[in-house]
Amino acid sequence: MSEFKHIDCQKVADLLATDDVKVVDIRDEQSFNAGHIEGAFHLTNGSLSQFMQQADFDQPVIVVCYHGVSSQGAAQYIAQQGFEDVYSMDGGFETWRKSFPFAKAD
């Protein structure tokens, strides 16, 4: 069984700058629309099928939630679907927002 890994915000920023990674944000629509990591896919129960159809299973996936708790369960689920490299971002979007206050939101 595949397992997800933990990753901190700085490492996410480093990966986004250098690697081809996919960020999925599982927060509610209002929170996502208010701000998210640039290029993030808004992953919901309704968009899961679309994500799975479009996904590259070899591409690293970083799951983001509010505080880094809910993303762990979602990351585990994604890992179990066959993705090879799945991470839960520690601290969630709240830590990202504090660490990168001038980061652009889509």
Automatic annotation (TrEMBL):
InterPro entries noted in UniProt: GlpE_sulfurtransferase, Rhodanese-like_dom, Rhodanese-like_dom_sf, Thiosulf_sulfurTrfase
Rhodanese domain location: 17-101
PROSITE patterns the UniProt entry points to: RHODANESE_3
Gene3D superfamilies, per the entry: Rhodanese-like domain (3.40.250.10)
Keyword vocabulary terms for this entry: Cytoplasm, Transferase
Catalysed reactions listed for this entry: thiosulfate + [thioredoxin]-dithiol = [thioredoxin]-disulfide + hydrogen sulfide + sulfite + 2 H(+); thiosulfate + hydrogen cyanide = thiocyanate + sulfite + 2 H(+)
Subcellular location: Cytoplasm
CDD domains: GlpE_ST
SUPFAM superfamilies documented for this protein: Rhodanese/Cell cycle control phosphatase (SSF52821)
SMART domains cross-referenced by the UniProt entry: RHOD (SM00450)
Residue ranges of the TM segments: none
Entry's Gene Ontology molecular function annotations: thiosulfate-cyanide sulfurtransferase activity
EC number of this enzyme: 2.8.1.1
Active-site residues (renumbered): C65 (cysteine persulfide intermediate)
One Pfam family linked to the record: Rhodanese
Family under the similarity heading: Belongs to the GlpE family.
PANTHER family: FAD-DEPENDENT OXIDOREDUCTASE, THIOSULFATE SULFURTRANSFERASE GLPE
Function according to Swiss-Prot or TrEMBL: Transferase that catalyzes the transfer of sulfur from thiosulfate to thiophilic acceptors such as cyanide or dithiols. May function in a CysM-independent thiosulfate assimilation pathway by catalyzing the conversion of thiosulfate to sulfite, which can then be used for L-cysteine biosynthesis.
Name of the protein: Thiosulfate sulfurtransferase GlpE
Native species: Catenovulum sediminis
Lineage, broadest ranks: Bacteria, Pseudomonadati, Pseudomonadota, Gammaproteobacteria, Alteromonadales
